[in-house]
Amino acid sequence: MTFPFTQEFEAAELENENLDEIEETPKEWGLDFKSGQLTGRVVEGVEAVKVWAWLALRTQRYRYMIYSWDYGSEYEDLIGTTHTNEYLDTELKRMTEECLSTNKYIIGIENFAFEKQEECLKIRFKLLTVFGEEEMELYV
């Protein structure tokens, strides 16, 4: 003989287990990537992951106590140094991959390239996510 409340409890447990398996689609406030201003609309999926990546790459790691030490990039460590283009290519790619690896929706990057422009670097790559691919470009 089973009690009625036991069946309800078991059904609720099964329902909660199924909910844990379903991953939510990420949502972020949309950004205008040229100006860095919010667009006022909510974006989902690959566009939301792109917003997260853009913000993470532009945030200096270890500077702000509000973020964990896993969040942000270390590009500023290269400021004022005189390294070869080969070294910069290797380090920038490593730093980018390390920064983005903390996001569970990001699989990796491809076609990484950079170019020096006056006092900054222009970084371009293809962001590979579980939702699709997206071209990224940012200035450091």
From TrEMBL:
It holds the Pfam family Sheath_initiator. This is DUF2634 domain-containing protein. It comes from Anaerovorax odorimutans.
